[in-house]
Design goal:
Membrane topology: Multi-pass membrane protein
GO biological process, one term: proton transmembrane transport
Structural class: alpha+beta
CATH topology of the largest domain: Calcium-transporting ATPase, transmembrane domain
GO cellular component, one term: plasma membrane
GO molecular function: ATP binding; ATP hydrolysis activity; metal ion binding; P-type calcium transporter activity; P-type sodium:potassium-exchanging transporter activity
CATH architecture of the largest domain: Up-down Bundle
Number of domains: 5
Family: Belongs to the cation transport ATPase (P-type) (TC 3.A.3) family. Type IIA subfamily.
Radius of gyration: 35 Å
Bound molecules: adenosine-5'-triphosphate
Number of strands: 29
CATH superfamily of the largest domain: Calcium-transporting ATPase, transmembrane domain
């Protein structure tokens, strides 16, 4: 088939040309064959760094090159053993660095794959959700508002469908799409209104299309190289640390030069001092820091995935720890989204509906007595609208063998053996109609749907146009307050009467009563169109409707959410509910969940419309519920909270939520019900749509940040200790306390493993009882800088003391110098390995169980064993210039190594705790009249 001819074909020819079946889709086997033949529906990726390049990259560090040069010189001077050992250490270091970076990169790639797009395809007669990369020409796909079009396709069905194609055509206004053939041969892409292009977005309505081109053959594929953007995955902290790294290099180099100069001035051999200087510089520069930060982030992100939060943008991990407000949708996030109709209100009569879940078993009772449904015209009309204006189906599991498969692919919700396909609000109405004998099945053949006017959270209603016995009928359901504006009549006692202000008040009162009982309320209306009402335009058909009645459905809060909200409060994080639902429903649910404190305010979208920015800013801290809001309100709310200095997390699922999600500091999309648009705008996706997962992610985010601070503290304090030992010795005119190879060894065995183990350390118990940290906080804040300097100085001073004490036994004896250097080496290693446990706590070593982090224990034990090997294996002694230490030496080593950490620990225990408990974030107890 000619590339550009798909738009001209009739639907039947289209199916033939693609050897496809429009009713059942491709058979799974055929699809697999085509996939093998044509290849995946993917745009080719940019170049990746090969593992070899990654490994070689480890040697491009300037100081490593200098060290290698220095080694070469010592090799040429005949110091073969030294040269070989240093090269071995450099290689091992590079291997470690490579493993760290490779792992980090692999995890980042896995994260990207997790957020890969999915598509709803018709395969073997069943709708399945598959990775968009598995689509092949001939696949029939279903699309709805918010979906990104997964391949080039020709529409075969459209309902008020609009697509935003600016990426391809430059046209920023969404264009309407249809499914009729276009006969003109040579037309620009912008005019191909019956073609959906890969990568563009459905902004309104629903559609069905047949895939005609995939992967690099699509229009997007043709320009793929032009639009390929590599998203930066570097977080602000990583960036800042990179800057810090540069400063540290300069400081380390300056100090090293001072050490070398001081050494030479005090009579040390120049060559030895040069090698010691270079080794010191290599050891003191925290070159592993960026990789360890990436690993800590990536592993943290893996932990978040287990807790159902998928991070799309790595920088948000940091921001998560700063979140001070979570703005959450209600339906499905705070509540279960498992709806059941429990009440009806029709023409002044209240009715109760019995039965639970999706099982269509139950009845309708008025004042405790069963209602005679057959003869109740008004009730039957309501059921008719509920069943016709509906896209959800509910079937029994054993009658729907593919349900399990679909459950796995998230297109269905299974509850007590009953399978709901579609929107739960509509599912509840399907079940209601089935319970009362008016199921869609029973109406099959009698009514034919001509057109759908889809629901969206802006209109808050949905209509269908159906033909029936030669006439046409419009059925509408939606939020009562909105729907009433479209109604001029009402059904009262089976008669159509004018919808007077008194009747409207009655409907309002009934709706408010239901809403106050935490029910989700929907209104129902209809109109039989006259033959002259030919227009099918939304504004023409959705008016002069006859109001029928109301339904109230329960949607129980998610069980775990109440605790999660209480957790947030303790963590100084405010929870705000933002919902399209009725204000009273929202308030009632907020009350059940403990969102609304005394003095808290609920405002409606309408009140929000009337508020100036100043008033909103003034009240923002006290508003806990925003009800009946439209997505565009969300943006205003985010901005107001941000102006108040909050770091805002905001959830959303629809197309129109995208701007608010983007503007929020942490945009959160729903993994199950969310549209592609919202997911792409978000930095976090909840795989279970559950509020508690946000709180889990925040907890992990805080933990990751603290772990990063822990190993920064460890690495830098160790480096300060190393440099200071050498520096003070040179200043005091002492011989070298550590020989170059020992310095490199300390760097290798004490830095890498323990620091990585700190990166996966368990969080402190009170992590979620502290206020969120400020987004502007410096990484060295909360006394971290002081801890690094003070511990570093103590480690350096006590290492030197141990060296000096040993040296004084027989000053001037070269054999004793080796002994003293061995003591200094052991003291430095042990001091760091003891200090690493101190780094786990923001207070002191005594505040945490040192056996808790198994990785750390393993890392420390291996470092001790390796050090013992260097001291006691006779073959290694000449290489590392060590002698075996005696019991007396060890006593000195342990005391000198332990003092820095224990001294500070005792100080901390004696001192008062500087932690303050967080207060409830609500300031003042204001309230406004509604
Ligand atoms: P959120 O998820 O933001 O908490 P919500 O899901 O309750 O909000 P919307 O989906 O915008 O908010 O629904 C708003 C109102 O629209 C509901 O209270 C209900 O009256 C009505 N409504 C919801 N779903 C449908 C539907 N499928 N057809 C018609 N009306 C609906």
């Amino acid at each position: 088939m000619e590339q550009g001819m798909w738009h001209g074909l009739e639907t039947a020819d289209l199916a033939q040309a693609l050897d496809a079946n429009l009713d059942t889709g491709l058979a799974p086997g055929t699809a697999a064959e085509r996939l093998a033949q044509i290849g995946r529906n993917e745009l080719s990726e940019g170049k990746k760094t090969s593992p070899l390049m990654l490994f070689l990259g480890q040697f491009k560090d300037f100081m490593v090159l200098v060290l290698m040069g220095a080694t070469l010189i010592s090799g040429l001077l005949g110091e073969y053993l030294d040269a070989i050992t240093i090269v071995a250490i450099i290689v091992i270091n590079a291997v470690l660095g490579f493993v760290q970076e490779f792992r980090a990169e692999k995890s980042l790639r896995a994260l990207k794959a997790l957020s890969a797009p999915m598509a709803k395809a018709l395969r073997g007669g069943d709708i399945v959700v598959i990775p968009a990369s598995e689509l092949v020409p001939g696949d029939v796909v279903e699309l709805e508002s918010g979906d990104r079009i997964p391949a080039d396709l020709r529409f075969i069905e459209t309902n008020s469908c609009y697509a935003e194609e600016s990426a391809l055509t430059g046209e920023s206004v969404p264009v309407s799409k249809h499914c009729d053939p276009i006969k003109a041969a040579d037309i620009p892409l912008g005019d191909m209104r019956n073609i959906g292009f890969m990568g563009t977005m459905i902004t309104r309505g629903t559609a069905k299309g047949i895939v005609v081109r995939t992967g690099m053959n699509t229009e997007m594929g043709k320009i793929a190289n032009l639009i390929q953007q590599t998203e930066t995955m570097e977080t602000p902290l990583q960036h800042r640390l990179e800057q810090l790294g540069k400063i540290l290099i300069i400081v380390a180099l300056a100090l090293t030069v001072m050490v070398v100069v001081a050494g030479i001035l005090h009579g040390q051999p120049a060559y030895e001092m040069f090698l010691a200087g270079v080794s010191l510089a290599v050891a003191a520069i925290p070159e592993g820091l960026p990789a360890i930060v990436t690993i800590a982030l990536a592993l943290g992100v893996q932990r978040m995935i287990k807790r159902r939060a998928i991070v799309r943008k790595l920088p948000s991990v940091e921001t998560l720890g700063c979140a001070s407000v979570i703005c959450s949708d209600k339906t499905g996030t705070l509540t279960q989204n498992k709806m059941t109709v429990t009440q009806l209100w029709i023409g002044g009569r209240g009715m109760d509906i019995t039965g639970e879940g999706y099982e269509p078993a139950g009845g309708c009772f008025e004042g405790g007595k069963p209602v005679d449904i057959k003869h109740d015209q008004s009730l039957r009309r309501l059921l008719q609208v509920a069943a016709l204006c509906n896209n959800a189906t509910v079937t029994k599991l054993d009658q729907d063998p593919d349900a399990i498969k679909r459950k796995k692919s998230k297109t269905a919700v299974v509850q007590d053996e009953w399978v709901l396909k579609g929107d739960p609000t509509e599912g509840a109405l399907t079940v209601l109609a089935a319970k009362l004998g008016a199921s869609a099945k029973s109406m099959e053949g009698l009514y034919k749907r001509v057109k759908e006017y889809p629901f969206d959270s802006e209109r808050k209603r949905m209509s269908v146009l159906v033909t029936h016995q030669g006439g046409r009928l419009i059925c509408t359901k939606g939020a009562p307050d909105m729907l009433m504006n479209q109604c001029t009549y009402m059904l009262w006692d089976g008669k159509v009467v004018p919808f007077t202000a008194t009747l409207k008040q009655k409907v309002n009162d009934a709706a408010e009563k239901m809403a106050a009982g935490a029910l989700r309320v929907l209104g129902f209306a209809y109109r039989e169109l006259r033959p002259q009402d030919a227009s099918e335009v939304e504004s023409d058909v959705e008016n002069q409707l006859i109001f029928v009645g109301l339904s109230g459905m329960i949607d129980p809060p998610r069980r775990e959410v109440k605790d999660a909200i209480a957790n947030c409060r303790r963590a100084g994080i405010k929870t705000v509910m933002i919902t399209g639902d009725h204000q009273l429903t929202a308030e009632a649910i907020a009350g059940q969940l403990g969102i609304m404190p005394r003095g808290g305010i609920a405002v409606s979208g309408q009140q929000l419309n009337e508020m100036t920015e100043e008033t909103l800013d003034r009240l923002a801290d006290n508003i806990f519920v925003y009800a009946r809001v439209s997505p565009e309100h969300k943006l205003r709310i985010v901005k107001a909270l941000q102006r108040k200095g909050h770091v805002v997390a905001m959830t959303g699922d629809g197309v129109n939520d995208a701007p608010a999600i983007k503007a929020a500091d942490i945009g959160i999309a729903m993994g199950i019900t969310g549209t592609d648009v919202s997911k792409e705008a978000s930095s976090l996706v909840l795989s279970d749509d559950n509020f508690s997962s946000i709180v889990a992610a925040i907890e992990e985010g805080r933990g990751i940040y603290e772990n990063i601070r822990k190993f920064i503290r460890y690495l830098l304090a160790s480096n300060v200790g190393e440099i200071l030992t050498m520096f003070l010795a040179m200043m005091a005119g002492l011989p070298l306390p550590l020989v170059p190879i020992q310095i490199l060894w300390v760097n290798l065995v004490t830095d890498g493993l323990p620091a990585m183990a700190l990166g996966v350390d368990q969080a402190e118990k009170d992590l979620m009882q502290q206020k969120p940290r400020s987004a502007k906080e410096n990484i060295f804040a909360r006394r971290l800088g002081w801890k690094i300097i003070s511990r570093g100085i103590l480690i350096g001073v006590f290492t030197l003391l141990a060296f000096w004490v040993t040296l004084r036994i027989r000053p001037g004896d070269p054999q004793n110098l080796v002994h003293a250097q061995t003591v200094a080496f052991a003291t430095l290693v042990m001091a760091q390995l003891i200090h690493v446990f101190d780094c786990r706590s923001s207070r002191s070593i005594f505040h945490r169980n040192i056996l808790q982090n198994k990785y750390l224990l393993f890392a420390v034990l291996s470092s001790v064993v390796l050090m013992a090997a260097v001291l006691y294996v006779p073959m290694l002694q000449p290489i590392f210039k060590t002698v075996p230490l005696m019991f007396r030496d060890w006593c000195l080593v342990i005391v000198a190594a332990g003092i820095p950490t224990f001294l500070m620990g005792i100080g901390s225990v004696l001192g008062t705790s500087n932690k303050k408990k967080t207060k409830w974030p609500l300031q003042g107890q204001k309230s406004i009249a509604r």
